[in-house]
Design a protein that fits this description.
single chain; 150 residues; alpha+beta; 27% strand
Length: 150
């Protein structure tokens, strides 16, 4: 995908990112594209943390994908550093184009570059298509996740 650029997200990208986050049944219930204030504050916090990488995929000057990569140093696994991939979204026009694979491969390579020994991600239990996608890329459904809203 020579015409694709993957780069750090900036404030001007936030409307497109939020639109992608809201463009599915789960996101439609929890995102608010009409009020970007909390998202811009979150981008500022993310941008100030060297272990956080919110990126966008840009094609022809248009944001067509996004993900967040978090690098976490730890003690377990003999002091291994791991990364977590979150909030992977592909614009509706680009689904099935290979862009999702390109973004995940970028995240895996960036994780290696940052010295990570493990890449992990979570996916809502209802996203069965996403589960098949991640399994095709070599991820294994090895754990059960839990969340507690605060």
């Amino acid at each position: 995908m020579a015409d694709l650029e993957i780069r750090a997200a900036v404030a001007d990208d936030v409307p497109a990112i939020v639109a992608m986050l809201a463009d599915d049944p789960l996101g439609a219930q929890r995102e608010s594209p009409d009020d970007l204030t909390p998202y811009l504050g979150a981008l500022e916090r993310l941008s100030g943390d060297p272990n956080q990488h919110l990126v966008v995929a840009v094609r022809e000057n248009r944001v067509v994908g996004t993900l967040q990569l978090t690098v976490i140093p730890g003690l377990s696994r003999k002091g291994a550093t791991r990364s977590i991939i979150e909030a992977v979204r592909i614009h509706g026009d680009e689904r099935g184009s290979g862009l999702g694979t390109e973004l995940i491969e970028w995240a895996i390579e960036e994780s290696r570059r940052q010295g990570c020994h493990l890449v992990q991600l979570t996916s809502d239990a209802s996203r069965t298509d996403a589960h098949r996608f991640y399994e095709r890329l070599g991820f294994e459904a090895s754990h059960v996740g839990f969340k507690l809203p605060l």
